[in-house]
TrEMBL record:
The gene is proC. It comes from the Bacteria. Catalyzes the reduction of 1-pyrroline-5-carboxylate (PCA) to L-proline. GO terms for molecular function: pyrroline-5-carboxylate reductase activity. GO terms for biological process: L-proline biosynthetic process. The keyword Transcription regulation does not apply. It is found in: Cytoplasm. Belongs to the pyrroline-5-carboxylate reductase family. One of its GO terms (cellular component) is cytoplasm. This is Pyrroline-5-carboxylate reductase. Keywords: Amino-acid biosynthesis, Cytoplasm, NADP, Oxidoreductase, Proline biosynthesis. Its EC number is 1.5.1.2.
Length: 265
């Protein structure tokens, strides 16, 4: 038996596998993945030395924890394929938006140990944040085990199912907004004459440092912003323009659109 198996080995499965293997939480021999196309499997085999297969059923039969890591539109098809072979002892993990615990039970046709998780791609560098929502058949020990695995590539936090869309908006999808922000900052630096590669380095380090200050000082982000804004200085001019162009409401409206979409999937 493998400890964990992934059906679908794309961006998210690779981020999680990279985190687990990178932090030595599991040996590569304890991990198995299947995928529709061969290329992703060759990559996973060569990069981490995990077991790979073209057969989803092999993962469903072999893994104690089965992670459904395909796009939401393929969930129904994959569940139809594996539902006959999964056992009551296995944990079935959904990482897709919109696939509720009730929907999973209906699709599998019986109550099993379902867990909804919402990871994000920074798992790839050990800085992910993942929400965990256990179904009612999952024991405290099993929840602790899954949380330990998720903590290996960042942080994990238990949330109620009603919070999942907020989680997707504030963390699952959020790296994309942060990348856009850094890209825009680098564009600004390039327009001020800085070479592109150096601009990305400065922009990314400034964001990393600011994020660490929020997490490590415990101070309100507004107070940290005020510490940067010298009276009559440069920063307050940038803040004035960002407010004028609607940074805050753009972010809030974007997240509401994100959550609405997640709810509909
Ligand atoms: N990419 C992200 O930042 C996040 C993604 N998610 C969720 O994770 C899930 C996976 O997303 P990604 O990894 O980004 O997608 P992806 O498209 O990179 O990977 C999915 C993989 O599944 C394979 N696949 C498709 N149908 C299959 C089948 N029937 N059997 C076996 N393999 C099959 C594809 O070939 C592909 O390699 C989705 O449900 C997504 O909503 C959740 C949080 C963050
Ligand atoms: O864009 C998506 O649908 C997925 C869910 C969270 C992040 N990526």
């Amino acid at each position: 038996m493998k400890k964990i198996g992934f059906i679908g080995c794309g961006n998210m499965a690779k981020a999680i596998i990279g985190g687990i293997v990178g932090k030595n939480v599991m040996a590569p021999g304890d991990i198995i993945a299947s995928n529709r196309s061969r290329k992703a499997l060759d990559y996973a085999e060569e990069t981490w030395g995990i077991s790979v297969t073209a057969d989803n059923l092999e993962v469903a039969k072999e893994a104690e924890i089965v992670v459904l890591a395909v796009k939401p539109q393929f969930y129904g098809q994959v569940i139809g394929e594996i539902k006959g072979v999964v056992q009551e002892s296995q944990l079935i993990v959904s990482i897709a938006p919109g696939k509720t615990l009730a929907w999973m039970e209906e699709q599998f046709g019986r109550p099993l140990k379902f867990i909804r998780c919402n990871p994000n791609t920074p798992a790839m560098v050990g800085e992910g944040i993942t929400s965990v929502t256990p179904g009612d058949k999952v024991t405290e020990t099993e929840l602790a085990r899954v949380t330990e695995i998720l903590n290996s590539f960042g942080k994990a936090s238990v949330v109620s199912e009603a919070m999942i869309e907020a989680v997707i908006a504030v963390s699952g999808s959020a790296p994309a907004y942060a990348f856009m922000f850094m890209e825009a900052m680098a564009d600004g630096a390039v327009s001020l004459g800085m070479p592109r590669a150096q601009a990305y380095e400065f922009a990314a380090q400034a964001v990393l440092g600011a994020a660490k200050m929020v997490l490590e000082t415990g101070l309100h982000p507004g107070a940290l912003k005020d510490m940067v804004c010298s009276p009559g200085g440069t920063t307050i001019q940038a803040v004035r323009v960002l407010e004028e162009r609607g940074l805050r409401s753009s972010v809030i409206e974007a997240m509401i659109a994100c959550a609405d979409k997640a709810r509909s999937m």
